[in-house]
Amino acid sequence: MNKFVKRLITTTVALLGLVTFATTTASAKSTTSTKSTAKATAVINKTTYKAVYKIAKAHLGARYVYGATGPSAFDCSGFTSYVYNHGADFTLPRTAQAQYNANKHVTYAHIKKGDWVFFGTSKWAISHVGLYVGKGQMIDAQNRGVVKEAVHAPW
User: Fold this and answer.
1) What is the pTM of this model?
2) Strand-pair category, 3-15 with 116-120
3) Is 76 a catalytic residue?
């Protein structure tokens, strides 16, 4: 794994009903271990996304438990952390707010599969995160458990 297009995981925040997205792309060589911290770039490519999506999809129906990090129960940030750790060998911060704070942002028009979608009342009050899977859909852990739903679903 020497050369990949690396991209910070896209983040999204719903601010009072308005949605804002973010990402950064850069070409880079990896000379260290594939295990990273959240401030480093994640390898986001078609193969990595497929692995992350496969793990996320396999956990559809898992129950929601506040503070849970898997594999049989999750909260929202525990779910995103779990699927990226196991699918992309990428370590993320533990909470939705910390995951939001650790990444750059793009508009909704630029969101891509594998990006994060964040929700909250402001950028300082992020309360939820999900994994964008394309076509306006995300997989997230919420009070109904791990589900696939529309990004703009009513809360």
Assistant:
1) 0.74
2) parallel
3) yes
